[in-house]
Amino acid sequence: MTGDAGLPPLKAGVELAPGYRVLEHLHRSRSYDVYGVWSAERCCRCIAKTPAPDMLEKRSARNRLLREGRLLGRLTHPHFVRLYEALKEPQPVLILETLTGETLAHLIHRRGRRLPLREIAYLGLHLCSAMHYLHRHGLLHLDLKPSNIISQPPLAKVIDLSIARPPGRGRSGVGTVPYMSPEQARGGHLTAAADVWGIGVVLYEAATGRRAFPGSTGSDTEHEARYEQLERRADPVREHRRVPPAFAAAVDRCLEPAPADRPAVGELFAQLDRLLKS
């Protein structure tokens, strides 16, 4: 798999960094490669994230990865992927725990499976727990989406803190276009409400099997991106799946265009918890 970058990924057997041998190439994003590697020190398989070959000389890609490593190194929470170590030489590499589950994107779309509502409610609790912890550490995730969530029963794990940052003025278009809150798409003031929106769009897609804003297209590197979330409100959840009114209301509130109209993370957690208990 070569992804968008021109140079091919490393082959199995190549030493990625001292003590880490490539087992397989797993994924390529716009800037980074993810490998399964064998750790000689730990005598086990780990995950390695490193700049794609074309990006190795780009300081911005290197700095973002090392910054992500510093952030992950501060976090100890069951719903965040665990960092083992961050290497700077001969190239930046993050060594992460191996997660044995599948991405939520795979469960929703590639397997074509409608997830049980009880599982979705638990997913929401896990995301609320993770975001509550992250916000207490003064950070926003800003890129919650099904491909950044690993389902590893009984836990959901959040990955990729590459654009996480403190609350404050954002930069227009930084994130994943279909999942950005309206204020994130505009480059407006960002608060915890942006991650509540992120939880909402994830739960919406998990429940209905479709994106809340399917007309949003483009990437954070394109100037021609279309932000459907700036043009209209999301369809109510119950237009696409018959779910309990209380669940639909909780998700629909997360997708209110105005940040002040969305529930706080703790409020959303309590709503989902009551639904599960009832």
Residue runs with pLDDT of under 50 for 5 or more positions:
1-5
Structural class: alpha+beta
Would you tell me which CATH topology of the largest domain applies? Answer: Transferase(Phosphotransferase), domain 1
Number of strands: 11
Helical run tally: 7
- Main pleated-sheet profile: 6 strands, antiparallel
Estimate the strand proportion.
15-25%
What is the CATH domain class of the largest domain? Answer: Mainly Alpha
Shape: globular
Could you state the oligomeric state of the chains shown?
Answer: single chain
Order of helices and strands: EEEEHEEEHHEEEHEHHH
Terminus-to-terminus distance = 46 Å
Give me the CATH superfamily of the largest domain.
Answer: Transferase(Phosphotransferase) domain 1
Q: How would you write the strand order of the largest sheet? A: 1-2-3-4-6-5
Count of structural domains: 2
Q: What is the alpha-carbon Rg in Å? A: 19 Å
Averaging pLDDT over every residue, what do you get? Answer: 92
- Corresponding CATH architecture of the largest domain: Orthogonal Bundle
Helix coverage percent: 25-40%
Protein name: non-specific serine/threonine protein kinase
Enzyme class: transferase
Keywords: ATP-binding, Kinase, Nucleotide-binding, Serine/threonine-protein kinase, Transferase
Organism: Rubrobacter taiwanensis
